[in-house]
Design goal:
607 residues, alpha/beta, seven-stranded mixed β-sheet, six-stranded mixed β-sheet, globular
């Protein structure tokens, strides 16, 4: 099937980490976005500081497909270390743009690839004197070359540079010069634009480009967070950095200039979650952000927060494990660790955002949810969502919205109660009433501990009382099922005997796969999970289909295991569709796995 090359291709930049290429590559992606064309950039970088190969992959899709796609249509290679691999990555008939200041080795020449040589370093040596400028402007120059080859509007690039260097206007002129040098070389030496090219559209509307970590940081500010305790770890560090940036704009007293927020860098992850629990117990809205290794260390304190029933918020930006694993690659592999975090009979509430808008909304809402349920809420993001820019609907907030603090008794209400029972279930929903320290001079106080207690927070090792408390926590879990965000259903129930279940960043490629299969007259019912615990909608979906494909990005099918364990689902009907190479799952991977398991279905071809 012929596919148009207009607004439908993948460009990959092969650079060296630490050479200033990131801003040039982002300039390229943002220019396409400004031309009204849907774009998805992916930053593929090493875990060292500088010197190793790094890639930046940009998918352009007029259809609005936002997931990653296999194959490279145009490779921009300025890294000799990776050039042999980069040449092989180009699709047959594709293009390879390289720095022709040095001649390519014959072994790097493929008959089915079009080569575009631009002597980037030679031109920079001739036009610029400063060594650092030569390196930086080499990157800007290849963006100029691409603008001619792909038909990027020069005015858009000029405007973006003006915005980038606002207040540093003297830097605009040499950057524009570098752009024009790249453009002129293409004009003088090649036929342009390529058949692979861009045409202005109006498909991005009022959408924004933003990464999930920034959205979480902003969501925490809007959600009422005032305290964050953390320990730096890739890929979650920028969550706290974003919170600090936004808090400095919105959480500073205008009269005194005093910060109305506190950020504490703890000595380790265990200390960080302990501080968060303490701040929440004392009435603040507090959170932390981490990744898999940090979540492992936090397990004991998460058990304390679950058992002592202290609201807490944790943002887990998942990466590839186990152990240190691949710190700068993505996975959805902390699911079981997070769901049953801590020893004993412990169940934690999980949220699964799929895009930056949901990162913002779910983070803001997680503080309400934590206080309503008096338990930890764990946001399950990942590196792909957290550190890559995504095209997103703009964020919205109702300024009249009030925070839901849950069942918190004030001094007047305490006066009316003969005896306050911190763990006494008066409403039958498993959620008890709490007080904030200092609310009343004599009433409402209780001793918080991780040991067993009765309904009035008095220490006990009476097994009957302990079991009664654990049963109440299970009742609260049932209440949570109808409090957390409900799953999203895509088709009418029972339209197809087959179903697809996915969550988080698998959503982009799952939706694309469904669209492609629908074009081949193969339709599925589909459900996107947004939270754990699973409500009755999830259970009904599982029970009403003959075969269900569970799409996830880990080796051990962790979400499938969770569904089997929690819903007593038949393992034979839940078919795993897995990807765990550290790169985001693609529609091709999903379609290929489904094809293997549906022998009666029409074989799908996806290029």
């Amino acid at each position: 099937m012929h596919k148009s090359k207009i607004n439908n291709f993948v460009v990959r930049f092969a650079n060296v980490n630490g050479t200033g290429s990131a801003s040039a590559n982002y300039l390229f992606a943002k220019a396409i976005f400004r031309m009204g064309i849907p774009v998805t950039p992916k930053n593929i970088f090493p875990s060292n500081i500088q010197g190793l190969p790094t890639w930046y992959e940009v998918r352009v899709s007029e259809k609005g497909y936002l997931g990653r796609r296999e194959g490279v249509d145009l490779m921009v290679c300025v890294n000799p270390q990776s050039i042999a691999t980069d040449v092989l990555a180009v699709k047959s008939g594709g293009y390879f743009l390289y720095d022709s200041s040095k001649k390519l080795h014959p072994e790097l020449i493929r008959d089915d690839v079009n080569y575009i040589g631009v002597p980037l370093m030679d031109i920079c040596l001739h036009e610029f004197t400063d060594p650092r400028q030569r390196q930086l402007f080499k990157n800007i120059m290849y963006v100029g070359a691409l603008s001619a080859l792909l038909n990027i509007e020069f005015e858009v690039l000029e405007q973006l540079l003006a915005e980038q260097f606002n207040g540093k206007e003297k830097l605009i002129v040499p950057n524009v010069k570098a752009l024009k040098l790249g453009i002129q070389y293409i004009h003088d030496n090649y036929t342009y634009p390529l058949d692979l090219r861009l045409e202005r559209r109006n498909l991005t509307g009022n959408k924004i480009l933003i990464d999930g970590n920034a959205a979480c940081g902003l969501g925490a500010v809007y959600g009422g967070a005032t305290v964050v305790a953390w320990y730096p770890i890739t890929p979650s560090t920028s969550v706290v950095e974003a919170f600090e940036k936004y808090a400095k704009k919105m959480r500073v007293d205008k009269e005194t200039g005093k910060n109305n927020f506190a950020i504490v860098q703890a000595e380790d992850e265990l200390a960080a979650i302990g501080m968060v629990i303490g701040a929440n117990w004392n009435g603040a809205r507090s959170f932390t952000a981490t990744s898999g290794p940090g979540l492992s260390l936090m397990n004991e304190f998460l058990g304390l927060a679950y058992f002592a029933e202290i609201p807490s918020v944790l943002i887990d930006v998942q990466r590839t494990g186990p152990s240190t694993g691949m710190p700068t690659r993505t996975q959805q592999s902390d699911i079981l660790l997070a769901a049953y975090a801590s020893h004993g009979d412990t169940k934690q509430v999980l949220l699964f955002p799929a895009n930056p808008k949901e990162c913002f909304e779910m983070t803001a809402g997680s503080f309400d949810l934590a206080e309503q349920l008096q338990t930890p809420i764990i946001m399950m993001s990942d590196l792909d969502l957290g550190m890559n820019d995504h095209m997103s609907e703009p964020f919205e907030w109702d300024d009249k919205r009030e925070y839901n603090r849950g069942k918190v008794l004030n001094a007047e209400e305490l006066e009316e109660i003969p005896q306050f029972g911190r763990y006494l279930d008066v409403d039958g929903d498993g959620i008890t009433y709490r007080t904030i320290p200092g609310t009343h001079p004599t009433k409402g106080s209780f001793f918080t501990r991780g040991t067993s207690r009765d309904e009035y927070a008095a220490y006990t090792e009476d097994g009957t009382i302990y079991a009664r408390n654990m049963d109440r926590l299970l009742k609260k879990w049932d209440t949570a099922k109808n409090t957390v965000p409900a799953p999203h259903l895509y088709q009418e129930k029972n339209k197809s005997p087959y179903g697809i279940v996915f969550f988080g960043t698998s959503t982009y490629s799952a939706e694309e796969a469904m669209d492609i299969m629908k074009q081949e007259n193969i339709s599925f019912d589909a459900m996107r999970l947004k939270a754990f615990p699973f409500n009755k909608t999830v259970e009904d979906f599982i029970n009403s289909h003959e075969k269900i494909f569970i799409i996830e990005q880990n080796r051990d099918a962790q979400m499938r295991s969770l569904l089997i364990n929690e819903l007593n689902a038949n393992p034979q009907k839940l078919i795993p569709v897995l990807n765990y190479d550290g790169m985001p799952i693609t529609a091709y991977t999903i379609i290929t796995h489904i094809n293997k398991n549906l022998t009666a279905a029409k074989t799908l071809v996806y290029q």
